[in-house]
Amino acid sequence: MSKLNDFGFGTQIRKGPFFDATVRWGAKGFSVYNHMYIPRDFGDPEQNFWNLINNAILCDVAVERQVQIKGPDASKFVQMMSPRDLSNMQVGQCKYVILTNQFGGILNDPVLLKVSEDCYWFSLADSDILFWAQGLAVNNLYDVAITEPDVSPIQLQGPKSKEIMVKIFGNEILDIKYYWFKKFNLNGIDLIISRTGWSSEFGYEIFLLNFEDGDELYETLMQSGKGLGLHPGHTSTIRRIEGAMLSYHSDMDINTNPFELGMDKFIDLDKGFDFIGKNALLKIKKKGITRKQVGIILHNNPMEGPNTRHWDIKKEDKYIGKVTSAVYSPRLKQNIGLALVNINYSNIGSRFSVCMDSSPVEAEVVEKPFYDPNKLIAKNSSS
Fold it and tell me: What domain range includes position 98?
Protein backbone atom coordinates (compact mmCIF):
# COMPACT_ATOMS: atom_id res chain seq x y z
CA MET A 1 0.00 0.00 0.00
CA SER A 2 3.00 2.30 0.40
CA LYS A 3 3.20 2.84 -3.36
CA LEU A 4 -0.40 3.99 -3.43
CA ASN A 5 0.29 6.52 -0.69
CA ASP A 6 3.49 7.66 -2.41
CA PHE A 7 1.55 8.46 -5.59
CA GLY A 8 -0.20 11.35 -3.85
CA PHE A 9 -3.89 10.82 -4.52
CA GLY A 10 -6.05 13.94 -4.39
CA THR A 11 -9.54 15.16 -5.16
CA GLN A 12 -8.46 17.07 -8.29
CA ILE A 13 -7.96 13.78 -10.18
CA ARG A 14 -11.01 11.57 -10.65
CA LYS A 15 -11.23 7.93 -9.65
CA GLY A 16 -13.11 5.68 -12.05
CA PRO A 17 -15.86 3.22 -11.14
CA PHE A 18 -13.43 0.27 -11.08
CA PHE A 19 -10.74 1.96 -8.95
CA ASP A 20 -11.43 0.22 -5.64
CA ALA A 21 -11.80 -3.15 -7.36
CA THR A 22 -8.43 -2.83 -9.10
CA VAL A 23 -6.75 -2.10 -5.76
CA ARG A 24 -8.37 -5.19 -4.24
CA TRP A 25 -7.15 -7.28 -7.17
CA GLY A 26 -3.55 -6.11 -6.87
CA ALA A 27 -3.02 -2.75 -8.59
CA LYS A 28 0.20 -1.34 -7.15
CA GLY A 29 0.81 1.74 -9.29
CA PHE A 30 -1.21 4.36 -11.15
CA SER A 31 -0.71 7.21 -13.57
CA VAL A 32 -3.02 9.96 -14.81
CA TYR A 33 -4.83 9.91 -18.17
CA ASN A 34 -7.68 12.21 -19.20
CA HIS A 35 -7.62 13.70 -15.68
CA MET A 36 -8.28 10.28 -14.11
CA TYR A 37 -6.24 7.59 -12.38
CA ILE A 38 -5.40 4.53 -14.47
CA PRO A 39 -3.81 1.33 -13.06
CA ARG A 40 -0.35 0.80 -14.59
CA ASP A 41 1.20 -1.83 -12.34
CA PHE A 42 -0.07 -5.24 -11.25
CA GLY A 43 3.41 -6.57 -10.55
CA ASP A 44 5.66 -7.87 -13.32
CA PRO A 45 4.88 -6.18 -16.69
CA GLU A 46 6.41 -9.13 -18.55
CA GLN A 47 4.04 -11.52 -16.76
CA ASN A 48 1.17 -9.18 -17.64
CA PHE A 49 2.26 -9.50 -21.29
CA TRP A 50 2.30 -13.31 -21.15
CA ASN A 51 -1.09 -13.30 -19.41
CA LEU A 52 -2.46 -11.20 -22.26
CA ILE A 53 -1.12 -13.24 -25.17
CA ASN A 54 -1.65 -16.69 -23.63
CA ASN A 55 -4.84 -16.24 -21.60
CA ALA A 56 -6.77 -13.04 -20.90
CA ILE A 57 -6.52 -9.87 -18.84
CA LEU A 58 -9.11 -7.43 -17.51
CA CYS A 59 -8.00 -3.80 -17.88
CA ASP A 60 -9.60 -0.76 -16.28
CA VAL A 61 -9.69 1.79 -19.12
CA ALA A 62 -12.44 4.03 -17.72
CA VAL A 63 -10.01 6.86 -18.53
CA GLU A 64 -11.05 6.47 -22.17
CA ARG A 65 -13.75 9.09 -21.70
CA GLN A 66 -16.60 9.44 -24.14
CA VAL A 67 -17.51 12.71 -25.80
CA GLN A 68 -21.14 12.45 -26.85
CA ILE A 69 -22.42 14.35 -29.87
CA LYS A 70 -26.22 14.18 -29.88
CA GLY A 71 -28.91 15.97 -31.83
CA PRO A 72 -30.42 16.45 -35.30
CA ASP A 73 -27.08 17.63 -36.74
CA ALA A 74 -24.91 15.04 -34.98
CA SER A 75 -23.82 13.28 -38.19
CA LYS A 76 -22.86 16.57 -39.87
CA PHE A 77 -20.97 17.76 -36.79
CA VAL A 78 -19.02 14.52 -36.33
CA GLN A 79 -18.07 14.50 -40.02
CA MET A 80 -16.85 18.10 -39.73
CA MET A 81 -14.50 16.97 -36.92
CA SER A 82 -12.92 14.04 -38.80
CA PRO A 83 -11.06 13.58 -42.11
CA ARG A 84 -12.44 10.03 -42.49
CA ASP A 85 -15.57 9.55 -44.61
CA LEU A 86 -18.36 8.56 -42.21
CA SER A 87 -21.26 8.78 -44.66
CA ASN A 88 -21.87 5.01 -44.68
CA MET A 89 -21.42 4.45 -40.94
CA GLN A 90 -24.24 2.42 -39.42
CA VAL A 91 -25.77 2.31 -35.96
CA GLY A 92 -23.84 -0.31 -34.00
CA GLN A 93 -20.60 0.31 -35.88
CA CYS A 94 -17.23 1.57 -34.62
CA LYS A 95 -14.59 3.36 -36.66
CA TYR A 96 -11.04 4.43 -35.86
CA VAL A 97 -10.78 8.12 -36.70
CA ILE A 98 -8.22 10.92 -36.58
CA LEU A 99 -9.17 14.35 -35.28
CA THR A 100 -7.13 17.25 -36.68
CA ASN A 101 -6.96 20.98 -36.00
CA GLN A 102 -6.94 23.75 -38.61
CA PHE A 103 -3.22 23.18 -39.23
CA GLY A 104 -3.57 19.45 -39.83
CA GLY A 105 -2.09 18.56 -36.44
CA ILE A 106 -3.46 15.50 -34.65
CA LEU A 107 -5.63 16.24 -31.62
CA ASN A 108 -6.73 12.68 -30.84
CA ASP A 109 -7.22 9.27 -32.45
CA PRO A 110 -10.43 7.94 -30.88
CA VAL A 111 -12.70 5.08 -31.77
CA LEU A 112 -16.03 6.49 -32.88
CA LEU A 113 -19.24 4.63 -31.97
CA LYS A 114 -22.56 5.36 -33.67
CA VAL A 115 -24.96 4.75 -30.79
CA SER A 116 -28.11 5.84 -32.63
CA GLU A 117 -29.00 7.84 -35.73
CA ASP A 118 -28.55 11.10 -33.82
CA CYS A 119 -25.93 10.10 -31.23
CA TYR A 120 -22.18 9.37 -31.47
CA TRP A 121 -19.44 8.72 -28.93
CA PHE A 122 -15.78 9.56 -29.39
CA SER A 123 -13.93 7.05 -27.18
CA LEU A 124 -10.85 9.10 -26.45
CA ALA A 125 -7.13 8.90 -26.12
CA ASP A 126 -5.51 11.34 -23.66
CA SER A 127 -6.54 14.89 -24.70
CA ASP A 128 -9.33 17.37 -24.03
CA ILE A 129 -11.62 16.81 -27.01
CA LEU A 130 -14.70 17.70 -24.97
CA PHE A 131 -13.49 21.31 -24.84
CA TRP A 132 -12.51 21.27 -28.53
CA ALA A 133 -15.92 19.98 -29.60
CA GLN A 134 -17.79 22.45 -27.40
CA GLY A 135 -15.66 25.25 -28.83
CA LEU A 136 -16.49 24.22 -32.38
CA ALA A 137 -20.20 24.29 -31.51
CA VAL A 138 -20.19 27.62 -29.69
CA ASN A 139 -21.61 29.62 -32.63
CA ASN A 140 -24.70 27.38 -32.76
CA LEU A 141 -24.33 26.51 -36.44
CA TYR A 142 -25.18 22.90 -35.58
CA ASP A 143 -28.12 21.64 -33.55
CA VAL A 144 -26.18 19.35 -31.19
CA ALA A 145 -25.62 18.82 -27.47
CA ILE A 146 -22.03 17.97 -26.51
CA THR A 147 -21.47 16.24 -23.17
CA GLU A 148 -19.38 13.65 -21.34
CA PRO A 149 -21.90 10.91 -20.54
CA ASP A 150 -21.73 8.48 -17.63
CA VAL A 151 -19.92 5.83 -19.67
CA SER A 152 -16.82 3.93 -18.50
CA PRO A 153 -15.13 1.20 -20.56
CA ILE A 154 -13.25 -1.83 -19.28
CA GLN A 155 -11.33 -4.20 -21.56
CA LEU A 156 -11.28 -7.99 -21.60
CA GLN A 157 -8.46 -8.93 -23.96
CA GLY A 158 -6.58 -12.08 -24.96
CA PRO A 159 -7.23 -15.45 -26.63
CA LYS A 160 -9.40 -16.74 -23.75
CA SER A 161 -11.64 -13.66 -23.81
CA LYS A 162 -14.19 -15.20 -26.18
CA GLU A 163 -14.69 -18.25 -23.97
CA ILE A 164 -15.01 -16.07 -20.89
CA MET A 165 -17.51 -13.72 -22.54
CA VAL A 166 -19.63 -16.64 -23.79
CA LYS A 167 -19.77 -17.99 -20.23
CA ILE A 168 -20.98 -14.62 -18.92
CA PHE A 169 -23.19 -13.34 -21.76
CA GLY A 170 -24.08 -16.45 -23.75
CA ASN A 171 -23.64 -17.18 -27.45
CA GLU A 172 -25.17 -13.84 -28.44
CA ILE A 173 -21.75 -12.33 -27.77
CA LEU A 174 -20.43 -14.22 -30.83
CA ASP A 175 -22.67 -12.13 -33.09
CA ILE A 176 -20.53 -9.03 -32.55
CA LYS A 177 -18.24 -8.47 -35.55
CA TYR A 178 -14.85 -6.75 -35.39
CA TYR A 179 -15.42 -3.01 -34.84
CA TRP A 180 -19.15 -3.40 -34.10
CA PHE A 181 -21.08 -3.34 -30.82
CA LYS A 182 -24.32 -4.47 -29.19
CA LYS A 183 -26.28 -3.58 -26.06
CA PHE A 184 -26.43 -6.08 -23.19
CA ASN A 185 -27.82 -6.26 -19.66
CA LEU A 186 -25.95 -8.28 -17.02
CA ASN A 187 -27.89 -8.82 -13.79
CA GLY A 188 -29.52 -5.42 -14.16
CA ILE A 189 -26.32 -3.65 -15.29
CA ASP A 190 -26.72 -1.88 -18.64
CA LEU A 191 -23.74 -2.29 -20.98
CA ILE A 192 -22.58 -1.72 -24.52
CA ILE A 193 -20.03 -4.31 -25.67
CA SER A 194 -17.77 -3.83 -28.70
CA ARG A 195 -15.22 -6.01 -30.49
CA THR A 196 -12.44 -3.47 -30.03
CA GLY A 197 -9.55 -2.92 -27.65
CA TRP A 198 -6.13 -1.35 -27.26
CA SER A 199 -4.07 -4.53 -27.16
CA SER A 200 -3.49 -5.99 -30.68
CA GLU A 201 -5.12 -9.17 -29.32
CA PHE A 202 -8.62 -10.59 -29.74
CA GLY A 203 -10.89 -9.00 -27.20
CA TYR A 204 -13.81 -6.88 -26.13
CA GLU A 205 -14.50 -3.47 -24.64
CA ILE A 206 -17.36 -3.34 -22.15
CA PHE A 207 -18.89 0.13 -21.74
CA LEU A 208 -20.52 0.55 -18.33
CA LEU A 209 -23.51 2.94 -18.44
CA ASN A 210 -23.82 3.61 -14.70
CA PHE A 211 -20.84 4.56 -12.52
CA GLU A 212 -22.42 3.02 -9.43
CA ASP A 213 -22.35 -0.46 -10.98
CA GLY A 214 -18.58 -0.44 -11.55
CA ASP A 215 -17.47 -2.45 -8.55
CA GLU A 216 -20.09 -5.13 -9.11
CA LEU A 217 -19.23 -5.42 -12.81
CA TYR A 218 -15.48 -5.78 -12.18
CA GLU A 219 -16.04 -8.46 -9.52
CA THR A 220 -18.53 -10.35 -11.70
CA LEU A 221 -16.13 -10.43 -14.64
CA MET A 222 -13.13 -11.49 -12.54
CA GLN A 223 -14.97 -14.14 -10.53
CA SER A 224 -16.56 -15.59 -13.67
CA GLY A 225 -13.36 -15.60 -15.68
CA LYS A 226 -10.56 -16.49 -13.28
CA GLY A 227 -11.22 -20.22 -13.66
CA LEU A 228 -10.82 -19.81 -17.43
CA GLY A 229 -7.49 -18.03 -17.23
CA LEU A 230 -8.52 -14.40 -16.60
CA HIS A 231 -6.02 -12.20 -14.75
CA PRO A 232 -6.33 -8.63 -13.51
CA GLY A 233 -3.99 -6.50 -15.60
CA HIS A 234 -3.14 -3.29 -17.36
CA THR A 235 -2.63 -2.22 -20.96
CA SER A 236 0.61 -3.82 -22.17
CA THR A 237 3.29 -1.51 -23.53
CA ILE A 238 5.14 -4.54 -24.88
CA ARG A 239 2.18 -5.82 -26.90
CA ARG A 240 1.06 -2.43 -28.15
CA ILE A 241 4.55 -1.66 -29.51
CA GLU A 242 4.77 -5.15 -31.06
CA GLY A 243 1.53 -4.25 -32.85
CA ALA A 244 2.78 -0.71 -33.68
CA MET A 245 -0.24 0.77 -31.89
CA LEU A 246 0.22 4.48 -31.36
CA SER A 247 -0.03 6.28 -28.03
CA TYR A 248 -1.12 9.90 -28.05
CA HIS A 249 1.52 12.24 -26.55
CA SER A 250 4.11 9.47 -26.93
CA ASP A 251 4.07 8.76 -30.68
CA MET A 252 2.04 11.71 -31.95
CA ASP A 253 0.71 15.06 -30.81
CA ILE A 254 -0.66 18.35 -32.09
CA ASN A 255 2.58 18.94 -34.03
CA THR A 256 2.34 15.62 -35.92
CA ASN A 257 0.25 15.19 -39.06
CA PRO A 258 -1.42 11.94 -40.20
CA PHE A 259 0.76 11.52 -43.31
CA GLU A 260 3.93 11.37 -41.19
CA LEU A 261 2.39 8.39 -39.40
CA GLY A 262 1.28 6.55 -42.54
CA MET A 263 -2.40 7.15 -41.74
CA ASP A 264 -3.35 8.07 -45.31
CA LYS A 265 -6.18 5.48 -45.42
CA PHE A 266 -8.03 7.37 -42.67
CA ILE A 267 -7.82 10.72 -44.52
CA ASP A 268 -10.38 11.17 -47.32
CA LEU A 269 -9.31 14.34 -49.10
CA ASP A 270 -10.99 13.52 -52.42
CA LYS A 271 -14.53 13.30 -51.02
CA GLY A 272 -17.08 16.11 -51.17
CA PHE A 273 -17.31 16.80 -47.44
CA ASP A 274 -15.40 19.49 -45.58
CA PHE A 275 -13.68 19.08 -42.21
CA ILE A 276 -11.42 20.96 -39.83
CA GLY A 277 -7.88 20.83 -41.26
CA LYS A 278 -8.77 19.84 -44.84
CA ASN A 279 -6.99 22.76 -46.52
CA ALA A 280 -3.90 22.24 -44.39
CA LEU A 281 -3.76 18.51 -45.14
CA LEU A 282 -4.19 19.16 -48.88
CA LYS A 283 -1.15 21.47 -48.77
CA ILE A 284 0.88 18.98 -46.73
CA LYS A 285 0.09 16.15 -49.13
CA LYS A 286 0.98 18.26 -52.16
CA LYS A 287 4.25 19.48 -50.63
CA GLY A 288 5.22 16.09 -49.20
CA ILE A 289 6.38 15.12 -45.73
CA THR A 290 9.88 15.65 -44.39
CA ARG A 291 9.78 13.02 -41.65
CA LYS A 292 8.16 9.61 -41.22
CA GLN A 293 7.35 7.18 -38.45
CA VAL A 294 9.27 3.90 -38.65
CA GLY A 295 9.81 0.73 -36.70
CA ILE A 296 13.29 0.14 -35.31
CA ILE A 297 15.35 -2.55 -33.64
CA LEU A 298 17.82 -1.27 -31.03
CA HIS A 299 20.95 -3.41 -30.92
CA ASN A 300 21.79 -3.38 -27.23
CA ASN A 301 21.15 -5.36 -24.06
CA PRO A 302 17.51 -5.97 -23.11
CA MET A 303 15.89 -2.82 -21.77
CA GLU A 304 14.65 -3.05 -18.19
CA GLY A 305 11.50 -1.08 -19.01
CA PRO A 306 10.03 1.26 -21.62
CA ASN A 307 11.62 4.61 -22.39
CA THR A 308 10.41 7.43 -20.15
CA ARG A 309 11.50 10.22 -22.48
CA HIS A 310 12.07 10.67 -26.20
CA TRP A 311 15.59 9.71 -27.30
CA ASP A 312 17.43 11.73 -29.94
CA ILE A 313 18.48 9.94 -33.11
CA LYS A 314 21.67 11.01 -34.87
CA LYS A 315 23.49 10.16 -38.08
CA GLU A 316 27.11 11.27 -38.15
CA ASP A 317 26.44 13.62 -35.22
CA LYS A 318 23.50 15.24 -37.02
CA TYR A 319 20.06 15.16 -35.38
CA ILE A 320 17.61 13.30 -37.65
CA GLY A 321 14.71 12.37 -35.36
CA LYS A 322 13.58 10.81 -32.10
CA VAL A 323 12.54 7.48 -30.63
CA THR A 324 8.99 7.92 -29.34
CA SER A 325 8.33 4.46 -27.84
CA ALA A 326 10.68 1.57 -27.08
CA VAL A 327 10.60 -1.62 -25.01
CA TYR A 328 12.13 -5.08 -24.82
CA SER A 329 9.94 -7.81 -26.29
CA PRO A 330 10.51 -11.12 -24.47
CA ARG A 331 8.75 -12.95 -27.31
CA LEU A 332 10.89 -11.42 -30.09
CA LYS A 333 13.95 -11.24 -27.81
CA GLN A 334 14.76 -7.79 -29.16
CA ASN A 335 14.48 -4.16 -28.16
CA ILE A 336 11.81 -2.73 -30.46
CA GLY A 337 10.60 0.80 -30.93
CA LEU A 338 8.78 3.44 -32.91
CA ALA A 339 10.65 6.47 -34.17
CA LEU A 340 9.94 9.66 -36.10
CA VAL A 341 12.89 10.29 -38.44
CA ASN A 342 13.99 12.44 -41.35
CA ILE A 343 12.43 10.86 -44.42
CA ASN A 344 15.88 10.41 -46.00
CA TYR A 345 16.67 7.85 -43.29
CA SER A 346 13.29 6.07 -43.20
CA ASN A 347 13.95 3.22 -45.65
CA ILE A 348 14.03 -0.36 -44.39
CA GLY A 349 17.62 -1.19 -43.44
CA SER A 350 18.65 2.39 -42.63
CA ARG A 351 20.98 2.57 -39.65
CA PHE A 352 21.68 5.36 -37.18
CA SER A 353 22.56 6.00 -33.54
CA VAL A 354 20.10 6.43 -30.69
CA CYS A 355 21.20 8.59 -27.77
CA MET A 356 19.95 6.64 -24.78
CA ASP A 357 20.99 7.30 -21.20
CA SER A 358 24.70 6.66 -21.69
CA SER A 359 26.59 5.69 -24.85
CA PRO A 360 24.96 5.75 -28.32
CA VAL A 361 23.19 2.58 -29.44
CA GLU A 362 22.97 1.38 -33.03
CA ALA A 363 19.47 1.04 -34.42
CA GLU A 364 18.05 -0.27 -37.69
CA VAL A 365 14.77 0.49 -39.49
CA VAL A 366 12.58 -2.60 -39.94
CA GLU A 367 9.04 -3.42 -41.04
CA LYS A 368 6.22 -2.68 -38.61
CA PRO A 369 4.11 -3.99 -36.96
CA PHE A 370 6.74 -6.24 -35.44
CA TYR A 371 4.29 -9.10 -34.82
CA ASP A 372 1.12 -10.19 -36.63
CA PRO A 373 1.48 -7.46 -39.30
CA ASN A 374 -1.99 -8.08 -40.78
CA LYS A 375 -3.67 -7.92 -37.34
CA LEU A 376 -5.30 -11.30 -37.88
CA ILE A 377 -5.27 -12.06 -34.16
CA ALA A 378 -7.42 -9.05 -33.26
CA LYS A 379 -9.77 -9.50 -36.22
CA ASN A 380 -10.39 -13.24 -36.17
CA SER A 381 -11.47 -15.37 -33.22
CA SER A 382 -10.00 -18.44 -34.90
CA SER A 383 -6.47 -16.98 -35.05
Answer: 66-147
